[in-house]
Amino acid sequence: MTSRERMRTALARGKPDRIPVAMVGDSDFYCKAAGRPLWEFEYGENRARAAIQIEAHLRFPDNDFICCWAGLDRETINSRRVVIEGGRPYLENTGTGERWAIRSRATAAEWGVTDHRRTSESGWDPPITCEADLHRVLGTDWNAREVADRGIVDPIRLMRQELGDDAYLAVVAHGIFPEALDAVGGFERGMVLLHDNPGLVRSVVERLARRRTATVEAGAHAGADAAWIGGYLEGADLIAPAIWREVALPGHRIQVSDARRHGLQVLFWFLGDCLPLLDDLVELGIDGLVVEQDRRGYSSDPVEIRRRVGRNVCVYGWNWELDFIEDRRDNITREVERQMRGAGTDGAFVMGTTYMTSEVQIEAVDHFCREVVRMSREASS
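^ that's the sequence the OP posted. Answer follows.
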């Protein structure tokens, strides 16, 4: 099977020739795997963004999946360029000629601290305080043609052209709930409004979900196989399931319906306690439930999730991030084996990673990929 066939089969709750490998990482991980400095991804053209993700993918030949990072707006790209002088990179404003030294930073998280100025409470100034603020603050949404013309899905198009069927590609449309909290004044204010005015937060969530539809449509036209939606700050470890169903779930229904309309499968990356919400997630109609390691005392064990959902949804496995960071290969082998035996023997299973950063050891990822393939072949022989 090709990577696209393997992933599509597993996500359709079938049993492919082997369990798919699906790596997910931040931009600094992709740069490390590709042997490129982070500034090439952050400040380069979209062709460079695509090339880094392609090179990282080819570095791990058993990987089947790319969660595609969006492209930069072409207006932004045309307003600047990178100039190398004395072996050092500088960012130059093409209009004024002004230059700034690009400092070396190790991780995407460090990069974001400097480049994104936000108030202590919210990234929206002023925040949304009532229904009448929705249009004033959010403005007019782009359509799919505008998204494509701006270059946002250029990396997907370029990766599909280069890789063909050797990678299953997802267009990213996640984060509507935390963005809604930010839009109404930040995390603390948003949590208060979930009690005082949940209808307002729901309206913002639904509007942001509709805003993502243009990106999903443009991504589908560019060659994506799936929409990658996400649940941040909305697990049962943070908010009551009843509030989640009232406020967050309606936005996800819009996202799933939109992805289906454009012929895409749906991957739901859920960060938090999803066990009390499993019936809702199955009913939502997602194809894959992507979970990560347990945090804050809850369980996200793929074996337990499989026991509860059966084959009604494809379940993702994961590995402990410290095992990747510290290259604990025996631990990686044991966890892969436990999850594959407990959740993956009858298909409808994808072996994922944790969300990887440049702290991860490349050799540990090599070992992880080899073990998934080896165990899959042994199980089918």
